[in-house]
Amino acid sequence: MINGKSPIGIFDSGLGGLTVFKSVRRLMPCENIIYFGDTARVPYGTKSKEAVIAFSKEIAALLSDRGVKLIIVACNTASSLALEEARKVSKVPVIGVIEPGARAAAAITANNRILVTGTTATISSGAYGRALKKLKPGVRVYEKACPLFVPLVEEGWCAKKLTELVACEYLKPLKKKGFDTVILGCTHYPLLQSVIARVLGGGIKIVDSAAAAAAEAMTNLASRKLLNVSGRGRVRFIASDAPGKFKTLALRLLGIKTGCVEVHRF
Ligand code: DGL
Fold first, then answer.
1. Is the pTM of the predicted complex or chain greater than 0.90?
2. Are residues 186 and 153 part of one domain?
3. Quick check: helix, strand or coil at residue 71?
4. Are 22 and 217 in contact (CB under 8 A)?
5. 44 lines ligand 1 (CB under 6 A)
């Protein structure tokens, strides 16, 4: 029986979705959470649509069977390619990061020009562009895949000169498009926010889809009267492989102490 004490399920291709986890935890500290990182099959950003759908369905079914009250697809790639399919196998609502991120960007752009950054799969899917155009038909959307950002973050190189050079290479040529808002359309990119802000220059508004998705989750739970408002929520981390590496990187990159990480192999 689902009730307020039931956990929120969050899943990602690996540990990048911990940026969403952190936003959820900050906004709803009383909530119990199960976080699943598909570390055996990461990255999703370079995989085919069929593969991302198959992986996402497996994880959504697993979380649903564990009695979660809501599933957040923290991974932008999975949200772009597999949200509808994940919904089909879940007994509870499933929200992704694309719609919330697009809504936040559409609300703050002043000149109706938005840059979307993400993995190759997210950008090729055009999911952010579709969502933005539905919200604001006149909006101009520019999209840029930045595939080197994920390995740079996972290497812990967020503050290195090399990362800034890579960001310049990807983003500088786009500045002439005149967008005033950029969507960080990948779990890892919030960790590069200061580099991206520096490269794009002052005045650019940065939308972090992780924070937007956490706010949407809260609205969803409140409307279903399933918010947990007392006590400190318990958290369980599950990885599909290499739990030790997950634990180490969670602490190193995001300062999260996971405790024991359970392993679930498909
Ligand atoms: N989680 C992925 C995303 O947000 C980035 C890492 C990957 O490619 O799996 O798109």
1. yes
2. yes
3. strand
4. no
5. yes
Burial class of residue 42, CB neighbours in 10 A (0-12, 13-18, 19+): buried
Are 93 and 70 contacting, i.e. CB atoms less than 8 angstroms apart?
yes
Q: Which domain holds residue 228?
A: 8-97+211-263
Give the DSSP letter of residue 126.
Answer: T
Ligand 1 near 207 CB (within 6 A): no
- Tens digit of pLDDT at every position of the chain (266 positions): 899 999 999 999 999 999 999 999 999 999 999 999 999 999 999 999 999 999 999 999 999 999 999 999 999 999 999 999 999 999 999 999 999 999 999 999 999 999 999 999 999 999 999 999 999 999 999 999 999 999 999 899 999 999 999 999 999 999 999 999 999 999 999 999 999 999 999 789 999 989 999 999 999 999 999 999 999 999 999 999 999 999 999 999 999 999 999 999 99
Any ligand 1 atom below 6 A from CB of 12: yes
CA of 77 to the centre of ligand 1 (A): 6
- Annotated active-site residue 260? The verdict is no
Q: Is 3 a domain residue?
A: no
**Same domain (yes/no): 123, 198:** yes
Q: Are residues 131 and 84 in the same domain?
A: no
CATH code for position 253: 3.40.50.1860
- For tokens 């007392």, name the residue: 230
Does 30 participate in catalysis according to the annotation? Answer: no
Q: How far is the CA of 101 from the centre of ligand 1 (A)?
A: 15
